[in-house]
Every structure is written in C-alpha cells, then in structure tokens.
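Format is chain and fold; as here:
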Amino acid sequence: MKIKIVELEQKLGYSIKKNFQSIGFDTASKCGIGIIKTTKQYAEIDWTLVHFKSDNIQEIYQQMYWSFGELINKNLDCCIIEDVYVGQNPNTSIKLARFGGLVIAHAIENQIHFETIGAVSARAKLGINTRKYPGKAKKAVKMWLKETLDLKLDEDNCADGIVLALLGIIEGIDFKPKTKKRKRKKKS
C-alpha cells in the first residue's frame, strides 16, 4: 500500500521520517512482520506472515534465524521488535524472548538501530483503543488499520508488525513505556 506522507502524518498526528526504512517484528510461531519504506513524498507499507512449524524447537530457532537474516539487511534504518509479554506460562515467555533475541542478533550484525516495545505500549502510542474488542486486541489493531489507513488485512497476526514498523518511521518517538503515577494513600 502506498500513501502520501502528508496524509499519513495527518492520520497519525506525528511527523514522518523521509527516505527511511523500518521493519517491525511481532515474533511468535506465526510471525507478523511490517515493512515500511518512505521517500520524500510517499510511504509504502508492506507486510508478511512467516509461519514456523516443527515439533523440534531447535528447528524453529534455525528456521527463524535464516528467515530473519533474509529480511534484516543493511538497507534498513531501524528494526522494532515487540517485547515479551510475561503471561501465565513461563516456557512460552522464554521462547518468545529467544525469538526476539534472534531478530536483535541480526540487527546488531547489520549495524541497524533497534528498539523493543511492548504491544500495549506500541498500540497506546498510536491511540489504538483495544477495548472495542475485549480479549481480541489483534482484531482491534486490524480494525484500526482499516479505519485509519484503509489497510485491509486478511488475518490479524501482521497487524502488530505494521504498528511496530509505523513507530519506526515516526520522528522523535519515545519507545519507553509511560509510567503510571502511584497514588499516595492518605494518612488518617
């Protein structure tokens, strides 16, 4: 999809870097990847889904390593990786951390600037309201992309990859999550 940078800036409410390439990784066994290349006038948004299948986790790591190596090259300016959400299952969190580590390794090898950010923080930076679809945050992101950028996705997994890539092309974006101020308890 190709969109004028002026139009994209109006829709996002941010200034966009020109002549810049960003890639966003939502790492999992179904890895959603967003790729954005800007010129002086246009932003070209692309995406892909890479599905890694195997009963052997070492094979999945190898598949990811080679696939990520094909996508991450010296032409990129930045690489944004979704940070690991620590949920109920620690083994899943460990695998996701390793998946992200493979992306980071390729970014370092190619001397590409990289950032990590949690899915909730990434969505919040763009004002994506996931409460419209309780328990279906990826669907909310997919619908936001359709409503905001007229970007139609066949499936949900690439949505966060595109959001991450969008963050990569925004001028001066702060990747640190907002910290909530603690409310002080009143002494009685």
Q: What stands out?
A: Strands lie at 2-4, 21-26, 30-38, 42-51, 78-82, 113-117. Residues 90-109 form the longest helix (20 residues).
